[in-house]
Amino acid sequence: MEFLCYHRDRSGSLALRDALLEDHWSYMDQWSKEMIARGPTLADDLDTPTGSVHILDLPDAAAARAFAFDEPNYQAGVYRDVLLRRWRNLLGRTMWEFPGGRTGGSRYLVLGLGAGEAADLTPPPGRDDDLIAYGPLLSDDGGAWLGTAALLRAPDPGTARAVLTPDRYASIEVHPWQFGGRPS
């Protein structure tokens, strides 16, 4: 069962986040086998973190909640909120298998929060070389569509946003994002 976890940083928590970096990485090291994708969202300066995205394959919703709320930054108050949703990996790969590699081009998290009938249930045609992760956000039981989430390479936020059908969502968020993990 796959889950998307998006921790959003609390305003003024950067120093605490920096102090906990090794704790965060050590915690994530424990989940390396379950990890599909991970990395920080960034402010417009492309340097300051604004949140942390993790997509994992876990046994159930209870394990996903434990992952999200036992995380050291969450425990210490770095994050203001957590979006935790079941997710379906429509690409069938991890970010480490993305043919475009870890660097090159701008990367984005695109979150479309659903409103009504399900949309974008298949990856958009012609974007295979740019999609890092793509899939629907679902209720805990997997029965209800709640939106769509994508990690992708795009030249700008507008092009990234266009991966989703605009009039099918209550809101669409676009955040600069980068591959996460310990520096190589």
Short description:
The protein has helices at 14-19, 21-29, 61-70, 72-76, 157-161; strands spanning 2-9, 35-42, 49-57, 79-87, 106-114, 131-138, 145-154, 169-176.
SSE topology:
Blueprint: E1 2-9, H1 14-19, H2 21-29, E2 35-42, E3 49-57, H3 61-70, H4 72-76, E4 79-87, E5 106-114, E6 131-138, E7 145-154, H5 157-161, E8 169-176
What do you see in this structure?
This protein has 184 residues and is α+β, with helices and mostly antiparallel strands. It has 5 helices and 8 strands; from the N terminus they run βααββααββββαβ. The protein starts with a strand and ends in an 8-residue tail after the last strand. An 8-stranded antiparallel sheet has the order 2-3-1-4-6-7-5-8.
Separation, N- and C-terminal Cα atoms = 29 Å
> How many distinct beta strands?
8
Q: If you average the pLDDT, what whole number results?
A: 95
Low-confidence spans: none
Structural category is: alpha+beta
CA gyration radius, whole angstroms: 15 Å
What is the H/E order? EHHEEHHEEEEHE
Strand content: 35-45%
| Gross morphology | globular
Biggest sheet character? 8 strands, antiparallel
- What's the arrangement of strands in the largest beta sheet? 2-3-1-4-6-7-5-8
Number of helices: 5
> Helix coverage percent of residues?
10-25%
What tags apply to this protein structure?
eight-stranded antiparallel sheet; 5 helices; 184 residues; single chain
